[in-house]
Structure formats: structure tokens, C-alpha cells
Amino acid sequence: MSDAPILLEMRSITKEFPGVKALSDVNLVVRAGEIHAICGENGAGKSTLMKVLSGVYPYGTYDGDIVYQGAQTRFSDIRASERAGIVIIHQELALIPELSITENIFLGNEPRRRGAIDWKSAQRQARELLARVGLRENPDTLIKDIGVGKQQLVEIAKAFAKDVKLLILDEPTAALNEADSRHLLDLLRGFRERGITSIMISHKLNEIESIADQITILRDGRTVETLDVKADGVDEDRIVRGMVGRELSSRFPDHTPKIGEVFFEVRDWNVRHPISAERQVCKNSSFVVRRGEIVGFAGLMGAGRTELAMSVFGRSYGVWESGTIIKDGKEIVLKSVADAIAHGLAYVSEDRKAIGLNLLDDIKTSTVAAKLSKITKRGVLDEVAEYQAAEAYRKELRTKAPTVDEGVSKLSGGNQQKVVLAKWMFTDPDLLILDEPTRGIDVGAKYEIYGIIQRLADQGKGVIVISSELPELIGLCDRIYTVFEGQITGDIPRQDADPETLMKQMTSTKKMQTR
Amino acid sequence: MSRFKDLQKNLFGGTTSNARQFGMIFTLVAIVLLFQFLTDGLTLRSDNLIALFQQNSYILILAIGMLMVIVAGHIDLSVGSVAAFAGILVAKSMAEWDLPWPVAILFGLLIGAAIGAWQGFWVAYIGVPAFIVTLAGMLLFRGGNQFIGNANTIPVPEGFRVIGSGFLPEVGPNTGYNNLTLLLGLAACVAVIWRELQSRRTRHEMDADAGPLWVSILRLAVMVGVIAFAALRFASGRVGTSFPVSGIILVALVLLYSFYTRNTAGGRHIYAVGGNSRAAELSGVKLRRVNFFVMMNMSVLAALAGMIFVARSAASGPQDGNGWELDAIAAVFIGGAAVSGGIGTISGSIVGGLVMAVLNNGLQLQGVGTDRVQIIKGLVLLLAVALDVYNKSQGRFSIIGSLMRPFRREASAAPATSEAEREPATTTVSG
After folding, report:
1. Does B400 or B114 have the greater pLDDT score?
2. Above 0.90 for ipTM, yes or no?
3. Mind listing the pLDDT tens digit for each residue in A483-508?
4. Do B279 and A380 touch (CB under 8 A)?
5. pTM: predicted TM-score of the whole model, two decimal places
6. Whole-angstrom Cα distance, residue B205 to residue A391?
7. In angstroms, rounded to a whole number, what is the distance separating the alpha carbons of residues A242 and A495?
8. What's A6-244's CATH class?
9. Residue A107 and residue B284: Cβ atoms within 8 Å?
10. What sequence ranges are listed for the domain ABC transporter (chain A) (predicted)?
11. Residue among B282, B342, B424 whose CB faces A355 most closely
12. The domains spanning A6-244 and A250-344+429-515 adopt the same CATH topology
């Protein structure tokens, strides 16, 4: 690989924002036809570097040189970089749900004939492009009707419509399940064989290890090193060492659970889909949580884990049909989120930007948002109490921000997640439901979040963790329920939990009791 | 140079929240001074100031409610019609059913509440967009006004007119000024000083930088100066005139609603709903209740504005309140509120409304016709917001944002710029 010509060279790139040096003296060399991974913790500068490359930050707003195909580039905007064949696919997909696959692929790039859009040609090309990315779907299908895995493929097809030479993927598999991820990675390998160069940002180190040729590691806005996967014999631990600057002895903090009595129980929970009433999203689900216990919910995407959790959390999802909740021996009825909070439940949503936080808020406002009554004295909000509470959590959770006046939209994913956790810890919950608590969060921050979860359990709270990453569930949880098509199909204690057992339960309705 | 930067930082878009409020007042003063110069001193004459307040108090009262509606992510187009509808019913209640005027005012507020409940029901519980509900309301209640009043004007009794054209009475020794107005000004000065001290203490308690002391003092000096000047002007008008009653109602409402939006859970819920309604809902905010409340509150304030207008013009007519919704909405947006909701303040909206009012008044004093006044007002609205949007998208210091904005929403200016940095990445890629 190393003798292939250099396609792209970024030389001592420095990018400053008011008060922050996001990148300082970063170098990146990408050779034609390779898959080049960029690793680093959140806030290390990966996305900023890619925005410099793709012209989101135009020429002149950064220092340093970008040499692409042997020439200096001066991209004024993202269109300029796309014309040069550099296409970036963001983690948050930029597709329009109400338009068809074809319309999305050619959005802003429509084939024209005498001024009008040539839909026939567009259709034909869309078919070809879909075949190239291995997506068998009618190009007239609306984006909202296909899963997120297929949407990702549409994004890539869209990139090909622009005659891509350098494909940049930002966390391409973050939202995908295992099968879709595997398909995507195979696709990238196929592209490599056809000479397309890819840059991939990912937190999933096992994927990087298996697919990348070169890995450039960033830390705190600087290049740490560039590794050749084959020559240097790189493995996950080696990457982690580069990212955090130290060896992480374990992905999970040591923890001895102190499990008490059952205090929370859901019995025969039935919920229907909010729009299509014939769909039952929770079928006779029953589960228990003990004090001090971390309980996992494993399942494939769409299995109904989030739906179950949200419907328990004050019926915030779907149409409740039947079922009871028993807490501390008494039946409780939670008709609204406010009821749920009052009864000591907390739900940390999987999508913190869309439904977890108000991005206009600052850290302190967010921290107290779910329990304003705690800082209200005689009907008036106590700003000092608010500040002190937020500051205490900022210190306790080690949220990286200059002050709690900082807007949450400015924080990295891991720090935003800490703010969300603080927001729910502030409500003094007995049961915390954490939905994908480490999605899109880097290794170091994950470790910290696991520590926080364990501390919460040790305080005698019950914790439910919903996660799509099986190693995470196995490493963190004392007991794991498997969910398949709205049903709880297994109840597996930690010592029996391994990926094969879980996967089997996650993909079949046959109930297996391991106890 | 560094001292100048210090001043700029603290007056405009600095980290200390009160700096921004000072900046807002500063802008308004600049506009007033401009017209004072252009009209050869007419603008700041007592009688003109009094007229300015009387003519605009009802629009500013609407702006208070509109701010809350817009922050929650809605809009209300019906306020002018609701005002006219409440106005005609109140006038009729006094003329034909002989209701005493205090009871009639209460009756008017109840009508507002009932209309608000009607509109709030559709918006909050059925989920019809407020734009549609209030567009319907605009037609409904305009028609209602003309149906009930037979498209005639109905005069209102003397007592009732106090809320629209009354003044603070003359009491105490003859000082050559209206004593109550002076007292009011004094109270305002004390309140402003107390507030500044309070906020410095709060910042200290939070271990936060309260900003240099001299900025606080300068700010206080200017504010006290402005208040004292205004008090003297209002107090020294033609005998029998002073600070208008409608102005007092306005000030009371501004204080009340500023406090509500900034310092109570209910107020914060409005911002939460406007900022991210789903996140608010999942934090235990009762979405429907908040939406119902802002719509209902708006109509109550519209009814009040309608009554004040009727009281000032001594009769209720079929064209009352025409176009008020646009003035109120313009005030809110000039005052720095975001079209998408979640951002804005009462004080900002009031200053936005005053900017429009002074502009209107100043141009009229110069003999500019209403045709051209409208053109100029339209352009000012567009340019004010466009400049703000442009500055934000350039990631530069946002003038209106920092001048007009909060106070409570301190954080908003900062994330706005960072959003601008992030946004292109996710949006332009689709193009």
C-alpha cells in the first residue's frame, strides 16, 4: 500500500475558534486506494479536520496547506470540494424523509434536459447506483419507509452520483445494527478494490482494526501518530493507547455489585403502536429490577426496547393497553412523565440531541430542567441554587466545560451525555433507564460513564441499560433481558451471558429460562 | 484600547447578563436622540412623550403576550380582532346592560379568557397549528365585532376612559410637577440600583465574574439618568397630564411577566417547549398545558389592549385593532426573538416595540405620510432582523442579538454562533 501515490496531504493544519484551538499542526497523508481511519476521542478534532478538508471551513479560515491530487486546494465551500470529488457523509444523515430514493440521490444535482428534470435518466442512474452499493430497493420508495441502514447506503449512492474520488464517512456504523454494519464494511472493501479512497471516522475500534489500512490518531487537536495496520500489527489496545495516551487496562471499571431486594417490577405490559393500532410493540412484557442492580436490555434495532422503556416512563410512547407497575411493593400508575419523575423514575433517551436536550440551553438550565421544583423557593427559581447544583454535577461527573454557563450545543457528545445524566441524577431517581448511554461517545468518556452507572447502582438505585453493543451489556450488567419483536425472550445472569447466547435469544421468540 | 474593549465586552454581548439589557436601552436612546435632533426637540417634549405612551401602550401589551406565544413556537394573528371583539362587547355591556365600568373590565378580561380557551383548545389539545387557528380567529372575531356592533361605533362612559386616557392625579404640595410621577420615577431608580446590586451579589455567590465595577456604575448612572429625565418630562406636562394610566398598566404587566418568564418554573417551561418540545415533554413538562396557557394568556392581554384602546378613543368601532397583530409580531422579532421559538425576552420585545413606536412618531412629527411610514417600518423590520441573521451566519458578533437579547437567555447568543459553525456541515451537504 505504502508505495501507492499520495492522493491527499494535509500539512500542519491549524484551526482556531474564539478561545479554543481545535486543531494545531495536524498532518494527514492519505494514499490513493486505501481506507484511512481517523481515531481519537470526542473533541480530539476529527470532525473539525474533515470540515477543513471538505470546505465547510473555507480556505483562509485555517492555517496550513491541503494538497489534493498534487495541487493546492482552496475550497471556498462544500460544493467546491464536491466538484473535486471529495464527498463527506455525516453521522446525521442529510436525507429528506418525504422524498423518494431517486429524488434524494439527485437532490441539488438533478439530471436536466432542456431545463426540466429528466426523471427517466435519473431513475436509470439511480438503479445503477443502488446496484453499486448493493441496495435492492425500488428507487421510488420514500426515504422514511426504509431503515437507517439502507438510508446510509442511499447516502453513499448519492456520493457516487457526484463522481466521488475521496469518500469521507463520519461514524458510518454508529446507528447501524450488526448485520447492516457488516454489509457497509464489505461495501467499503469493495470500493477499495475498485480504487476508491475512503477516510473513515469511527469509534468502533474492532471495525477499524478489521478494515483500515492506515490509522491516524488525533488527540487534543494534534496528530499523535499514523499507524500502518499490517506492518505495525495494530490491534484495538494499541489504538486505545494512542487515543487516550495511556493503556486502558480494562474497558470497564472494576465493580463488585451490591444487589438488594426487588423493588421495581413491571407485569404483563402491553402497548400498541401510536399510529398503526394493529401493531403491538410490547407483548406481555414482565421484568424486575433489584436495588443496586444494573439490568441490561439486549435486542436488535426495532425489537421494542426503547418503546418498552418509554411506555413505562409515564406512557411517553405508544398507546398503553394493560399491565401494572409495582414499586416498593405498591402498585403505581404513571400516566404522565411528571408522574414518572415524581415516583423516582428517570429516562435518559437514546437521542440526546433530538429529544434529550434543549440545545438552546446552557449547562445549568439543562441540569435542573427535569426537576425545577427542587430549586424553587416560594414559587421563584433560585438562581444560586441552580448554579451550585449544576456546578456540583459538573465537578462530580468531570464534564469538560469552562463554566456551567456554557451552551450545551458547544459540548462534545460525551460531555453532553454527562449533562443529560446530571439532569436525571438531579431528579433523585430510584430507577434510571439509560437508553444507549454511550452511543457516539469515545472510549475514555465511555469508561467514565460506566463508572458513573456503577456508582449510581452502588447508591442503591436500580439501573436499566439498553444497548445495541453486546460487549457493553456483558461487561456492565448484572443481568440481561433479551427482547425480540416486543417480547422478552430471555433473562440471563451475568455469568451465563456471552454474545452467542444473547444473539440467539435476541432473534427468536422461543423463551429460554437459564435459571 | 483594552479599556474600550472591556467596555464593549461588558456593554455589548459580554458575559454579564445585565450588560445586554443596558445595551438594549442604549440603542433605543440612540434612536430617540436621532429623532430629537431631526425634529428640533419635538420628540422629547412632555406632550409628545405622553402621547407616544398612550398611543402605543396597547401594542406593547400585545407584544408581551406575543413574545410568550412566539417563544413557545407559535404565532397569534387574531389579537387585533380579539381586541376589537372584546372592546365592542365591553362597550355594549356598559351602554345597553348598564354594567358598572369596573365590572365591565372584568367582563372584558373574561371574554378574553374564553376566546383564549377556545383557541388554546384547538392548538394544544387538537394540534391544529396556531397559525391556522388564529387566522380563523382573526376572521371570526372581526366578523363577531361587526355582527354585534352592527358595524357601528358604541361610545363608552367617562369612568371607563380612565384606563385609556387617564393620568396620575395631582396630590401633595404644589411643586410645579406631578408628584406621583416623580415618586414613581424615584421608585424606579431605587429598584434599578437594588437590582444591579442584587445581580452583582448573585454573580459573586456563584463565583462568577460580575464584570468590572466601573461598568456597573456607568450603567447605573445612565439608567438612573434616563429614568430621572423621563420622570421629570412626564411630571412637567400640561396641567392635568402626567404619566398615563395605560403606561402604568403596561409597566406593571412588563414587570409581572418579566418576572414570570425569567424566575418561575412556568416561565422556563415556555422556553423549554419552544426550544425542543419533545425534550421538554420527556422532562415532565406538560406540553398541552403550556401551549394552552400561552394562547389563552395572549387573548386575555388582547382583550385588555382592546379595552384600553376603546377607553382612549372613547368608543368602540368596527375597525379597532386592525393590523395590531403585525405591530406586535414585529416588536417581538425586532426585540431578538427567534422565529423557531425558544429565544426572546419580554424586555427585548418592549424595546423592539418602542423602537417601532419612536420611529412611527418621529416620522409623523416630520410630516412623513402614513404611506411612507409603512414603507420605512417594513424596511426597518427586515433590515434589523436580516443584519442579525447575517452577523450570526458569519459567526460574528450579533448586534441585535446582544443588544436586544436577554438577560435570562444568556446562553442563547453563544450557541447561536456555534450552531452557525456546525450547521453548514449537516445542511449544505444535501445540496
Report:
1. B114
2. no
3. 988 889 889 998 888 877 887 787 76
4. no
5. 0.77
6. 12
7. 32
8. alpha beta
9. no
10. 8-245, 266-510
11. B282
12. yes
